[in-house]
Amino acid sequence: ADTAWIVELLGPATVAFAIPIYEFRQLIYRYAVVLAVSIVVSIVVGMLVGIASIMVFASVFKFDATLTYSLMARSISTPFAIDLAQQIHGSAALVSLFTLITGVVGMVIGDMVLAWSKIRFHLAHGVAFGNASHGFGTARASQRHESEGVIASLTMVLAGLFMVFFGPALIHLMTAI
């Protein structure tokens, strides 16, 4: 109850990420096909790997259902993750913590991973940061390059929408296998 106001502010903060998307819409239009393919592929792969890896960890370490579902919902921005956790019977408090940890770790090691990958295209870096470490990654991408931050914002928002709309069915399907 003491931190409810923080959660209430996360929704408008996430919507604020749409401002650079609007301001750089010409850049997005210029690379629309490349971005559409790379964003959709990265989101789908990220969803599958995120859910599958948690399923493996949950079975190895004998996590209970609430912890498992909360971890499955962690790889998107907090407002989306809280909504998803409620849909799949996870814990809003746990998913908030796991989302923050995921974002910080992604932001910290993101530079190293991208340097190792030898990919030099700013838009690809933005897709990676936005998908892997949501708000924290978007902030880091914006520090690295303006267009990188814009694409990270776009990817973060789309990843959240994909996971909220398709995540529950995907999680149900993957846990039934």
Question: What does this molecule look like?
Answer:
There is one protein chain. This protein has 177 residues and is mainly α. The chain contains 9 helices and no strands. The protein has helices spanning 4-16, 18-23, 25-30, 32-61, 65-72, 78-87, 92-117, 122-144, 146-176.
Q: Give the overall shape, derived from the CA principal axes.
A: globular
Spell out the helices and strands N to C.
HHHHHHHHH
Residue stretches low in confidence (pLDDT < 50, at least 5 long) are: none
Terminus-to-terminus distance: 38 Å
* Percent helix: over 70%
Structural class: mainly alpha
Beta-strand percentage range: under 5%
Oligomer designation: single chain
Defining traits:
9 helices, 177 residues, 0% strand, globular, mainly alpha
Write the layout of secondary structure elements.
Layout: H1 4-16, H2 18-23, H3 25-30, H4 32-61, H5 65-72, H6 78-87, H7 92-117, H8 122-144, H9 146-176
Helix pairs in contact: 4-5, 4-8, 4-9, 6-7, 6-9, 7-8, 8-9
Short description:
By secondary structure, this protein is mainly α. The chain is built from nine helices and no strands.
